[in-house]
Amino acid sequence: MSVPERLLSQLAHVELLTPRPDESLWFFTEVLGLEESGREGQSVFLRGWGETFHHSLQLTEGPEPALGHVGWRSAGPEALERAVESLEAVGYRGGWTEAAIGHGPAYRFTAPGGQVEEIFWEVERVKATGELAPLFPHRPQRFRPRGAAVRQLDHVTLTTGDILADAAFRRDVLGFRFTGWTAAPDDPELCVFAQCTTNEQAHDLGLGPEMTERTGRVHHFAYWLDQRTDVLRAADVLLDYGIELEYGPGQHGMGEITYFYVREPGGARVELNSGGYRNYEPDLKTVKWQPVQGSNDWYRTMGFKDSMYEAFPPAEPKSSVKPDLFNAAK
Amino acid sequence: MSVPERLLSQLAHVELLTPRPDESLWFFTEVLGLEESGREGQSVFLRGWGETFHHSLQLTEGPEPALGHVGWRSAGPEALERAVESLEAVGYRGGWTEAAIGHGPAYRFTAPGGQVEEIFWEVERVKATGELAPLFPHRPQRFRPRGAAVRQLDHVTLTTGDILADAAFRRDVLGFRFTGWTAAPDDPELCVFAQCTTNEQAHDLGLGPEMTERTGRVHHFAYWLDQRTDVLRAADVLLDYGIELEYGPGQHGMGEITYFYVREPGGARVELNSGGYRNYEPDLKTVKWQPVQGSNDWYRTMGFKDSMYEAFPPAEPKSSVKPDLFNAAK
Amino acid sequence: MSVPERLLSQLAHVELLTPRPDESLWFFTEVLGLEESGREGQSVFLRGWGETFHHSLQLTEGPEPALGHVGWRSAGPEALERAVESLEAVGYRGGWTEAAIGHGPAYRFTAPGGQVEEIFWEVERVKATGELAPLFPHRPQRFRPRGAAVRQLDHVTLTTGDILADAAFRRDVLGFRFTGWTAAPDDPELCVFAQCTTNEQAHDLGLGPEMTERTGRVHHFAYWLDQRTDVLRAADVLLDYGIELEYGPGQHGMGEITYFYVREPGGARVELNSGGYRNYEPDLKTVKWQPVQGSNDWYRTMGFKDSMYEAFPPAEPKSSVKPDLFNAAK
Amino acid sequence: MSVPERLLSQLAHVELLTPRPDESLWFFTEVLGLEESGREGQSVFLRGWGETFHHSLQLTEGPEPALGHVGWRSAGPEALERAVESLEAVGYRGGWTEAAIGHGPAYRFTAPGGQVEEIFWEVERVKATGELAPLFPHRPQRFRPRGAAVRQLDHVTLTTGDILADAAFRRDVLGFRFTGWTAAPDDPELCVFAQCTTNEQAHDLGLGPEMTERTGRVHHFAYWLDQRTDVLRAADVLLDYGIELEYGPGQHGMGEITYFYVREPGGARVELNSGGYRNYEPDLKTVKWQPVQGSNDWYRTMGFKDSMYEAFPPAEPKSSVKPDLFNAAK
Predict the structure, then answer these.
(1) Could you report the predicted ipTM of this complex, rounded to two decimals?
(2) Side-chain half-sphere exposure of B86, counting CA atoms within 13 A
(3) Hey, are the CB atoms on B245 and D300 less than 8 Å from each other?
(4) Low-confidence ranges of chain C (pLDDT < 70)
């Protein structure tokens, strides 16, 4: 078996549109603890205290909560070229953007689910000085215990029309590992969720069902904390800020991650997570899960929640019947 | 066997003198996360976010780092009377103070080690309002993730001339449980440290050796965090504030507590801790430890540290030879 | 305000009847990690590795899963006498049993909810020898990492006809602290759950609704682990033994404890828990909770579960309508 | 800047020689919790419960505690060929071995430090059946809570004559990321320790000083546990087996990992660890540490330990003076 070349090194940033930019900025800086790296136009650039790149979140004023774009870093300068060749070889026609805030020239294309994504190699790195200068020489800045104090961007989950096809595209064209998918409870061939990864964990890219006429949507993106206990502490921090949690804390079977979900003030869903396994097999076999095996709820004691089917920008479901796609609890 | 009446319900507060009141206040509020409850004269009154009483720390300007006094709450109004009777029956001649900030009338006396201690029953309780109003009805206020965010006062450790005699006084006169003591490495009859408690843990009162001509000294006092992992997080918080740790993090055998020690800006030693066992036996047998059994260092891999023999106010040791009292590591 | 005398020092043991004694014994020893202390007749006596008394669980063969009895240790020899006087003064007519396995003479009475309870002072303590001899001098035995390796009995939750009256009985007659209760979502005067305690935590005695014609029932009893993370590890241990969890892991608002529930092979419900706050106020004000404040579910994201209304021995509910008593999630 | 091709995907196994094979086997299976995968000749093959390959430890009877060999898995079948070309291009003359237990043909060569290392691509995977069959479909087997229950092999640390040259070889010839090194306290150009990695953490290969006439030695190898708290639990497990810890628990600055070290019965050093950061930059800049920055001891409170300079097989140091290479505590 030949192993596909690893073309991407990591999820680098997400751009989020918010109709309430001030409240969203408060949420990401004061409550989650991100640092501001800069501003331009209607955008504020943010990063976690443990992140070396200029930003992992671009927060941009917009008419509704929505994804602006997703940024991936290639595995090297040549890998960037080969990723573009690989995309164009299967018919993608993207285009290059000039160097932007925080990174060099990027190739932008429209993903199968309609999202704007970009790939670049060159990055601007953080060198904090003054009171943010790091105590430890390998860190980009000091740890500041503000709010939940999230460390770094972890993953983004997008909607897409054909989940298995999108996952195969990620694997075959962009060199992701396609780690696993969940089948619908009543249809073992119907994929309701898939995970792909450029790293050691189960996913930095989730793919969920579209369920509406709108495309190009985001279900959530996640920030990482060091230890599972930090997620529980973060939940306490948010609760005591008077912020309602949407779902969790709990543990997903796929990826073994500890999580909870919350809506930021603009309306979009954010996850905080930790834990997860470390797997280094380039030829990892894609695992098929049944919900009853704990794909969503490791402990198999908790139902899914209707609100969790929503993605952004908001849209009416195609059918009035919401399929109970993920439930495993009796 | 008759069981002594439980006369005290808890360690209520400690008064610390500091020659650098502004820096000490910054340390206790910004770094440890205490809330300010009030001010009077040269004193600022502070409490942890989880504490129901008006204050657990009275921070008072003074010429050198030293103990002002220790405050105990009695087990009830009658228990306060009986504690006074019990003290006076063995010759203690203290006196009553008027109701003070945060509590009612108190009986003040000089402990065997020379410290001023007081016992009272009536307390003023915190009822936080506004943005500090608690989310949960049993809590005195919101949890605020500021700095190390310590929850509550845990214990105080004093020096005393005759450790075993002082511990027996606590047990026989004041109804403490005398949970354990450590013998010197080379003299199994010489007590170098003892623990007494009014609660379920091994100690809220530690007793260590005097070693100098000065009496009435404090070795350290400790604030509690919920989980052992919180102590490690707190250490990170302090490090990244540029504050040097003195000793730890580690785990003591006596009490099974996770700890680290640090000097506050005024010079006194503060411990942050968590963990510890829960024991409810009124007739618990006092346990004698050898250092090699891990009395100080549960893991028996780490030496003690010379600076840890110092207590406050500072004083020259009687002898130039510092006995290596607690070492268990080879 | 006068403070009631503390008559009881702790919950000492629970007797559980099981129709499947071999499987139940396997569950408690291999899966939960209890040690066997002895056998007599149809009973096996078990204890956690951190427990100093002879046993905390008496497992007895019986026709259905049910409570045998609950054992409390008094706060001293005189406190035992006064507890009996206090009970008899309000009309209880119990009786003394001879010294039994693990403890001295006990006064047995029928609690308001119909359960058999007993109070005693004298206890037999564990002194493990051989390979179970403790490494640390304060421990009754070695820590053995078998299964979930629970440390000690934590609490028992009983059903009762009038919850507030039963809680008042515990407080006024037996000296418990009555820490809090939950009102029904639609009736702020109807108590659906109450907590009483002899220790620093919110409860070692829970009181829930009867809901059937049968009395004297137990809802669950709980074993304690040191840290919250240990509860999550224990859940993993049980899952990988092929044992289905009933509810959780999660965190209760009342008591701030991390928990999960599981049915032992005989059918009864067992909880494993950790965390919880430490409060030492003899005059703690009883707190009234609304379910929407997170009384059951700290995070307010999770519904209650129908099966969790069941108690033991099993019985049909009086009404076919199960009231949704504890739900706070929307 | 061009980024070197990633030729290796992970550290796959370590072969350890032991003069006490029965006791060593007991230690690795009962105390650390490894599973036995098979036996051949004087070797027993072992794996952690979370490992997908046939084995991560080959335990072989031998005259003294020593490294047998280190096995690396290539990043793919072509990467194996290119790794061999790359080695031979700089003068290495290794040779191919037939497929062995657990993996396919391997290229064996002698590393700069004298160790035998091998690289292969094909692996045999675990498919546990019966009572070890996994509950979760992505896992190779059930989690069994036996002893410390380590999850997977983490890293190996070797001695070498010229640490910086060896690290450069790993980077330039084999595509490792060279993440950081520590300078001697009194000579900022003298490297006393270096870390290289094929994965997201700071190292799966450590390089330390030779200090004796013997070459080809191992300082330790490490098994991983999921969470930092699991390392503390593992320390308790080992202590209560009567096993003395050598160093720790503590946290290293380089890699941010929680660790402790222990000698297995054959005499070699084993580390258990967890934590550590996740970094995905192919062009990560190598970080130079000073001991006072916490390279060894994150908290800068603890001295190094003489016994920790020893490596295996044991040998007399060249000089009678042991340099105090790593100490940062005052």
Answers:
(1) 0.95
(2) 21
(3) yes
(4) 1, 319-330
A78–B contact, CB cutoff 8 A? no
What percent of chain D has pLDDT above 90?
A: 92
Look up residue C193 and give its two tokens. 């759950």
Contacts of C199 in chain B (CB under 8 A): 200, 278, 280
Q: For the ranges A184-188, B65-69, C92-96, D294-298, which has the lowest average pLDDT?
A: A184-188
Average pLDDT of the residues in A103-122 = 98
Q: Which two three-digit tokens encode residue C147?
A: 């299964």
Contact list in D for residue C233 (CB cut-off 8 A) is 145, 230, 233
Q: Is D31 exposed, middle or buried (0-12, 13-18, 19+ CB in 10 A)?
A: buried
Question: Amino acid identity, residue C185?
Answer: P
Residues of chain A found within 8 Å of residue C245, distances taken between Cβ atoms = 299-301
C108 at A interface, C-beta within 8 A: no
Whether A82 shows a pLDDT value over 90: the answer reads: yes
Are A135 and B240 within 8 A, CB to CB?
yes
Residue B89 CB-density burial (10 A; 0-12 exposed, 13-18 middle, 19+ buried): exposed
pLDDT at A59 over 80: yes
Residue entry with tokens 């910054």: B26
CATH homologous superfamily, domain D8-309? 2,3-Dihydroxybiphenyl 1,2-Dioxygenase, domain 1 (3.10.180.10)
Instruction: Determine whether B314 is exposed, middle or buried from the number of CB atoms within 10 Å of its CB (0-12, 13-18, 19+).
Output: middle
How much is the pLDDT for A330? 37
What residues does each domain of chain D span? 8-309
Using only C-alpha atoms, what is the Rg of chain B?
19
Structure tokens given for A306: 């209707």
CA gap A53, C328 in Å, rounded: 42
Vertex B83: Cα angle to B78 and B88 (nearest 5) = 130
Beta-carbon pairs below 8 A across chains B and C: 103
Q: What DSSP element (H or E) covers B134?
A: none
Q: Give the residue among B145, B153, B146, B144 at the shortest CA–CA distance from B52.
A: B153
Q: Which CATH superfamily is domain B8-138+147-309 in?
A: 2,3-Dihydroxybiphenyl 1,2-Dioxygenase, domain 1 (3.10.180.10)
Segment among A216-230, B37-51, B293-307, C148-162 with least mean pLDDT:
B293-307
Element containing residue C26 per DSSP (H, E): helix C21-26
Which chain A residue's Cα is nearest to B136? A240
User: Are the beta carbons of C80 and C120 closer than 8 angstroms?
Assistant: yes
Q: Quick one: pLDDT band at residue D9, thresholds 50, 70, 90?
A: very high
pLDDT tens, position by position, B244-300: 999 999 999 999 999 999 999 999 999 999 999 999 999 999 999 999 999 999 999
Q: Is the pLDDT of residue D327 over 70?
A: no
**For an interface test with A, which of B227, B240, B241, B258 has the most A Cβ atoms less than 10 Å from its Cβ?**
B240
How many whole angstroms separate alpha carbon B252 and alpha carbon B179? Answer: 14
**CB spacing of A135 vs B233 below 8 angstroms:** no
Q: What is the third-level CATH fold of A8-132+148-309?
A: 2,3-Dihydroxybiphenyl 1,2-Dioxygenase; domain 1 (3.10.180)
| B9 CB-near residues (< 8 Å, 6+ apart) | B73, B74, B75, B76, B79, B198, C280, C281, C282
Give the C-alpha separation, A52 to A22, whole Å. Answer: 25
pTM: 0.96
Q: What pLDDT score was predicted for residue D231?
A: 98
Q: How far is it, in rounded angstroms, from Cα D219 to Cα D269?
A: 7
Spatial distance between the Cα atoms of D166 and D172, rounded to a whole number of angstroms: 10
Q: Say which residue the tokens 């129908």 belong to.
A: C306
**Nearest of C100, C102, C98 to residue C37 by alpha carbon:** C102
List chains touching C (3+ CB pairs under 8 A): A, B, D
Name every chain B residue with its beta carbon within 8 A of the beta carbon of A148.
145
